[in-house]
Amino acid sequence: MGNFLNWTGGNITGGSGGGTLAGTIIVSSSTNTSSVSGNTLFNASTIALTTGSITSLAYGGTIAFTNLPTGVINFQADGTAFVVGYLSSPTLVNQGTISKTGGTINGTSVQWAVDFQNGGTVNCQVGTLFFTGGGTLENGTINLSGAGSVQLAAGTFTIPSAATFTAPSNNGAYLNLNGGTITVSGTLAGNLTWTGGALTGGSGGGTLAGTIFVSSGPNPQSVGGNTLANAGTLYWTGGTINSVQYSNVALTNLPTGVIDLRADGTAF
Amino acid sequence: MIGYSSTATLVNQGTIRKSAGTLNPTIVGWPVTNSGALLNNVVNTLNFSGGVTNTGTVTMVNGATIGGTITSNSSGLVQGPAG
Q: Among A85, A110, A128, which residue terminates a domain?
């Protein structure tokens, strides 16, 4: 490996006019915190987290760190890679590649909200990559690759109104909703496995237009809101779809919609 | 199932079908308002335990069972296999 910055502590922030990380940075464990602040920091090269994590600066308020189309954020171990600091609200805007190439036991978690922008890539080669801070599933799609599992595991992931997010396919493997919530204000297309967590319509309505595979998992499934409509196909093989507690729920299966019950048990 | 302190309705304008599972019933506990098609294609039970208000069609293959209270109005149809 050529020149690189070994980042074992301290804060990196973009200046008022913005700043770009254009070289390789290795983040490794330390007794100090490696933190990010500001809204104008961009990554155009490679940030490799070998054992450490990146934390949003405590009391940092709203923080946005953008991984540009040429940028790679590479997780080489299990653990929480992006940590939310006290009284901060960070977002990782991904236009480039988020990859996991090491760690096969406990998985790697991204605690920050992630703005999944069209054309970005999530490459999980081993183990499981958990997104636990919610975020935005933008209009378009993302590239999903690798033999590992990618889970939307906690937090609220929003599909904005007028947006169609096409959940990606990866050689028969799909993005997995296993916890948290997808709030659909626009349209959810593509393929999704649903083993836990909630699907809910936004206040202006939301449509499921793709194929959703429902099966049992460690968390229950639930549906919320009065505005969620299915125009695609929902294959149910396990788990139970509950209505969200303390809410009035109507799920509309549209004329093109199919709910295919492929097993015994309580589906709804 | 219906979550704690919530109400739930499954409004069906499309198709809800049981296509596999032969040992035990498949249960839909939410009340269903059906103007589309409810199908049981398996010789087993599809139980709408939350009841169905039907203005569409409810169809089962020979030997199949559909359970629950099906309330059809004049345009609703509940039918077995053709022939």
A: A128
CB A222 within 8 A of CB A243: yes
Q: Are A213 and A191 in contact (CB under 8 A)?
A: yes
Out of A242, A245, A250, closest to residue B9 by CB? A250
B80 touches chain A (CB under 8 A): no
The reply to whether A146 falls in a domain is no
pTM: 0.95
Regarding whether A85 and A204 lie in a shared domain, the answer is no
CB contact under 8 A, A268 and B5: no
- Residue A248 sits at the chain B interface (C-beta within 8 Å): yes
Determine contact: A238 vs chain B, CB below 8 A.
Answer: no
- Give the pLDDT confidence of A47-106 residue by residue, as tens digits: 999 999 999 999 999 999 999 999 999 999 999 999 999 999 999 999 999 999 999 999
Residue A219's region, left for phi above 0, alpha for psi from -120 to 50, else beta, is: beta
ipTM of this model? 0.96
> Does residue A116 sit in the same domain as residue A220?
no
Same domain, A115 and A211: no
CB atoms B6 and A247 under 8 Å: yes
Which residues form the domain of A100? Answer: 1-128
Residue the block writes with tokens 């939350």 = B50
Test A260 with B24 for CB contact under 8 angstroms.
no
Determine the Cα angle at A205 with ends A201 and A210, to 5°.
70
A245:B5 CB<8 A: yes
One domain for residues A191 and A92? no
